[in-house]
Amino acid sequence: MFWVLVVVVAVALIVGFLAMLAGRLPYDGMAEPVHTTPPVRLPEQPGPDDVAALRFDTALRGYRMDQVDDALSALRRRIAELESEVDRSAVDGGHPGARAVDRPTDIRRG
User: Which of 60, 75, 68, 62 lies closest to 40 in space, CA to CA?
Assistant: First the structure.
């Protein structure tokens, strides 16, 4: 009786596998991912705290690539803005955000 059950289960598995290969049974190997966190949105000018607060959904082999790509794009834009600001200030002779107290003066004590 036990062997009959084993044979029936084995035949059913083989038939099911062959039916899937032949396309008779529907199989969805890559279903749409399920989001477990809200969408990743960085502000226009992300700061260190915004980057530290980033959280991504985990997927089969790591993180959701679309969320990581969006976050990296926002950071890339911000870095480009900061670099252009630094370049502009280098041409002007100072550095961005420098206060008058921080700038060297030409006062000689004597």
Answer: 68
Sign of CA pseudo-dihedral 89, 94, 95, 96: negative
Cβ atoms of 40 and 55 within 8 Å: the answer is: yes
Q: Identify the three-state secondary structure at position 58.
A: strand
Q: Nearest Cα to 76, choosing from 39, 52, 40, 42?
A: 42
Distance separating alpha carbons of residues 102 and 49, to the nearest angstrom? 25
Amino acid at 18: L
Decide if 40 contacts 56 (C-beta within 8 A). yes
24-58 pLDDT tens trace: 777 666 667 677 777 777 788 877 788 778 777 77
